[in-house]
Amino acid sequence: MFKEKIIIEMKEVFKEIPFGIEHTLKVLKNAEDIMKGENIGEEEKEFISIIAILHDIGAVEAQKKYGSIDGVYQEKEGPEVAKEILKKVGYNKNIDRICFIIGNHHTPSKIDGLDFQIQWEADLLENLTVMDKEKEQEKIKKCIDENFKTNTGKRIAYKEKEQEKIKKCIDENFKTNTGKRIAYNRFILD
């Protein structure tokens, strides 16, 4: 119900930075895939989807104020923009939590729950796809190993990695049985 309204508002904000719309929708799709694999309940799905839709919402304001869309500036500007959008569409659940995650979504040390972890992984999956895979293989592997906790997120991230490295990574990093199963299915059996 609220998800569609918030997507419309997000698109309006990002009309000045159109690639932000595409990025956000890909992050949302990644979050939905991870939530499906992690058996997240319907109410929590909407909540995490809203976080995914609004995670970079401070980018336009950051560009205006600081001449940059770097994460630190997005974290500063995002919560207020998100609050305005949520108020406009009449969404009033867990606003402090949404703003906390948006205000820290580039700071992995602040991850303090599965909702934040799913957002982190969903965004990271999209960011990994734009890295130069040939030049940054070790950086990508390290990034995946250090950041992905859900099986679904890892499975998506490691799709193109070698099977033995994938198996080791999966065994060391996946915390849920569902995630581990999905990771093996996506990366080893595909």
> What profile does the largest beta sheet have?
none
Number of domains: 2
Low-confidence segments, given as residue ranges, are none
Total strand segments: 0
Tell me the number of helical segments per DSSP (H or I, 4 or more residues long): 11
Structural category: mainly alpha
* Shape estimate: globular
Gyration radius over CA? 16 Å
Estimate the mean pLDDT confidence. 85
Elements, N to C (H/E): HHHHHHHHHHH
Alpha-carbon distance between the two ends: 35 Å
Helix share of residues?
over 70%
Beta-sheet strand percentage? under 5%
Oligomer class: single chain
Put the structure in a nutshell.
The protein is mainly α.
Give the key terms.
0% strand, single chain, 190 residues, 11 helices, globular, mainly alpha
Explain what this protein looks like in three dimensions.
The structure is a single chain. The chain has 190 residues and is mainly alpha-helical. It has two domains: 113 residues; 60 residues. 72% of the residues lie in helices and 0% in strands. Helix 3 packs across helix 6 and helix 5 packs antiparallel against helix 6. The radius of gyration is 16 Å and the shape is globular.
Strand and helix map with partners:
Elements: H1 2-13, H2 19-37, H3 42-54, H4 59-66, H5 71-89, H6 95-102, H7 114-130, H8 137-147, H9 151-157, H10 163-173, H11 177-188
